[in-house]
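Much of our argument rests on the idea that a fold can be written as discrete symbols. Part of our work consisted of pairing the sequence of a single chain with a tokenised description of its backbone. We regard such an encoding as a compact summary of how the chain folds. The amino acid sequence and the backbone structure tokens for this protein are reproduced below.
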Amino acid sequence: FAQPLLDPDEAVRQAMKISAKATKPVVIADTQDNAGGGGTGDTPGMLEALVRSHAETAALCVLTDAKAAAAAHAAGEGADITIELGGCTPLPNVKPFRGTFRVTRLSDGRFMCKGLCVGGREAKLGPTALLTIGGVSIVVASKRMQAYDLEILRHIGVEPTEQKILVVKSTPARTWSMRASIRTSICAPACGWSRWARRSCRARRKTRHVYFLRALMNFPLATPSPKLLHA
């Protein structure tokens, strides 16, 4: 937890500055929406920051929104669709991002992971789409997956090493699996339910299943009991 925590806009500004002279992509870890830590995988805070800063040659994965993926598949590759993206789970200060996106590529969400974390495991994300707005590409999947394998991007036509900025819904620790392919990593805890760096690891292990189950059932979320957090 020694890595500085930046707000989304500052993280994007720093990433753009570094990437201007870098030969490898700069990774921003969207830690608060890490599906591997109980996050819902659908918060659009980092997407908003990328678009607001007019980032170019940037990619974000994985944003979980089954309705958006279905709309993209219904429209077909090359179509432009105006939709509300993300914000599917009722969370404080989280709203869908409304915009017009180009459906750049479609897939069934099946691919073989090849990285150091989960190499050899087949991913099954359901109907998946690559949506583009401005200079930002977003991998939108029907099912959640922590972004710790570069094949998430490659299977749908995005070569991660050719991007200037990669936003991954994961933790800085997981970016080690990408270390040969990236310039550096930045931690940006946007709004989300994975309480990375806000509580001790011990407390987080005890509460992670609570976040995960409530997100699955799409129930309104509430802060767990202090007795549970600090027992």
